[in-house]
Amino acid sequence: MDHFSSHPLYRKHNIDSAMSSIWEFYKSKFLSLFIISLVMSLVIQYASTMVNVKELQTITDPMLLLEKMKGFLVPILIISLINLLFATILQYYIIYNPLSSENNFFVSLLKSLKYFIPYLIIIVLLAFFGTIAIVLGILALIIGAFFAILYIMTLYLFILPIMMIEGSNIGDTINRTFKLVHKNFWTNIGWVAVFLLALIVISVIFSAIVLLPFTGNFLKTILNPENGSAVTDVSTNPIFIILSALIGALTLPLMPVFACVLYFNARANEDQGQIVTPANPDNDKVRVEDLYAKPYSDDHPDNPEKND
Length: 308
Hints:
Layout: H1 15-28, H2 30-48, H3 62-70, H4 73-96, H5 105-140, H6 142-166, H7 170-183, H8 185-211, H9 215-223, H10 229-235, H11 238-251, H12 254-272, H13 304-307
């Protein structure tokens, strides 16, 4: 871990320094992060066109509708795998590129592949665990569901940094994730809540900007609901795909950068909290008698009274 102490995100944070570190890191690496994220966003946006929701609008038979939706499972699975792969590559780049310029995108792509399968397995387990937690939260209270989502999201953010820095063993990664998340539990949960709220606000604003050129399509649908296909046509429009990719490239790096801040903050607190205690601390304490001259016996050669 010693060489990671030079990483720009490694330090003990408070909420202000955490957000400042994200912004400073984002600015310093903006061009490379934007280009990588733009490529990723374009691929994901294009892959999303494989799911043609427009076809569902003309189907009235529930059984036929269900059968058609089953056909979307494979494309959705492919899109999800692409998303996870890109998340793995981007996280590796953010962790290792600041330590050495040799860890460029292509090196990150190759070296991050060994983490993909273990990461995928953990995400499947987390999804199963998360679904149960969210259902239990809904049964308890709506607030419980929101808390469960925050908790699962916090666990998710720790997984890749732990795996890439401390080793890719699945069992050790899961155990270490729970340990670091629970060590400063309320701080981690609170930071994730603040970050997600800020990210949602930013995403809503950017999405509104992207949809401005297509306001006419939405007005047609509002004025005449039979023209519902006008809205679905927007998602396959090349201009919409490019604009969405550009916006996605601006926000995509924020999550892995924040994940690094969470992890490095936890490690800095852990590393700096390991104070070495002396073997015999009692010998190092200052005693009252140490403040005064030590008495000598009558026959001691250094006794000043003997010379008299």
